[in-house]
Specification:
The protein has 347 residues and is an alpha/beta fold. The chain has a domain of 196 residues: D-Maltodextrin-Binding Protein, domain 2 (3-Layer(aba) Sandwich). The protein has 14 helices and eleven strands. The strands form two sheets. Strands 7-6-8-5-9-11 form a six-stranded mixed β-sheet, sandwiched between helices. A five-stranded mixed β-sheet has the order 2-1-3-10-4, with helices on both faces. It is globular, with a radius of gyration of 25 Å.
Amino acid sequence: MKKRVGVVVLVIGMILGNWAAPSPAAPPIPLSWSDYVPPDDDRCEYYRHYIQRIKEETQGQVEIKFYPAEQLVKAIQQYEALMQGTLDMCAFVPVYYGGKIPLVCLSSETSYWEPGDSVPITSRTAKELDAIFAKDGIKFLGWSAELPPICLVGPKIFRTFEDIKGVKVRAPGTAAKVIKAWGGTGVSIPASESYMALQRGVVDAAYTTIATVTSTRLWEVTKAITFYHTGGSPTPVCMNLKKWQSLPADIQQTFEKVNREMPPWAYNHARAFVQKTEDFLRTKYKEHHKMNPEEGAKWEEPARGYIWKPAVQKFGKPAQDLWDKILLIAKESAEARKQGKIPKFFD
């Protein structure tokens, strides 16, 4: 009996001697994502969806903390912060940085396409955009949310150029040139400051997206809304290049997988959002007007080329080639819709 007990004790001892406690799970990789838009802006829907998909696909190995409403940096500081690595990730409005990245801004001249089209345009020019961003130490993640179509809010409906002549209009970045082309006075003010600027009379009207009107409640400080005849522009989603290079290969592959699935989702979201939001804003404004194609063409004509013409003059063939590709993608996307199809998202 004692012999059997001894054997059991010996076996147990051998087992315990060879047993090692499991290694603790590696802590999640933290990433910071900053944006200037308020938490209820439509673009946050894109970003939160993406963040959730990354979490799911990495099984929690990546933890992206999202900071809306300029919590970390101001809108006009996002690009530099991303370059320097102060931010790990962000999505930014290219026209705020027209002087720094004019070729990226080409896809912001929205009078040449319809809502949703900035999504296939951005994804199908990802190779070109990534090369541009890489020079500044930035990794383009290959997809973009869409800034919804522009509208004009102010003291009245804007039907003719006489209506806007002499009016001080808030506009984002280089888009102030559009207001000047129409006869107004463009004032470059971040979207987050539009409410206060209108309330205090710093500007009389705002040239902004329908999403910004909704998220910042501009109907409280303006009387009328004019829905402009145009498409939407991109907000490219990027990461600091050194941060990207520091990620394990399997995590990079997971990001790439989710990056590829985002354009179709973003396109469908953008198309659905526009009509829903225009309908909502009509309930907030007693005075509202949607430009028809003929009116839109008159307003678009003086402003067309405010982005691509200077870029081509400065950079020549590279800018012209990229602009020609953008126009081709917009044309193909429009044709796909006519046939009841989803546009092509990748070359």
